[in-house]
Design a protein that fits this description.
alpha+beta; 5-stranded antiparallel beta sheet; 5 strands; elongated
Amino acid sequence: MEDLTHINPQGRARMVDVSAKDATFRRARAAGKVLMASSTLELVRTGGAKKGDVLAVAQVAGIQAAKHCWEMVPMCHPVALTGVDISFVLEDDGIAIEAVCSCRGETGVEMEALCAASVAGLAIYDMCKAHQRDMVIDNVRLLEKDGGKSGHFIREEGR
């Protein structure tokens, strides 16, 4: 339990006090993918989805998710993000998503990047579900984080 900073001495959840930490530059990258049929991917590619521009909506949804992460994940701190970017790559089997978040603060932005990638995927699903209901949001993961006491982390390939 010593490694779990979100557990108080009584074994209950707590929000970690970061007020004594120095503000430093923090950056995180997260990714995920929405697996879909080629016909659904073609609707995204050509702008033929009934609800409109799938990737534009997913872009805004991901940015909003990063900004509101602290409202969705109970032990997250409100973070004054200085940058959020969401990018998409249309691949043979779906849409790859990458989210990058940055700030200058006392705590990292991994959760914000993960929320951004996840919700961008959810928005893609929502925009395309009239055409295909069995899409899969897959492999949401942290790719990289930098800043803070734990230093620089880069995910090893295949993990």
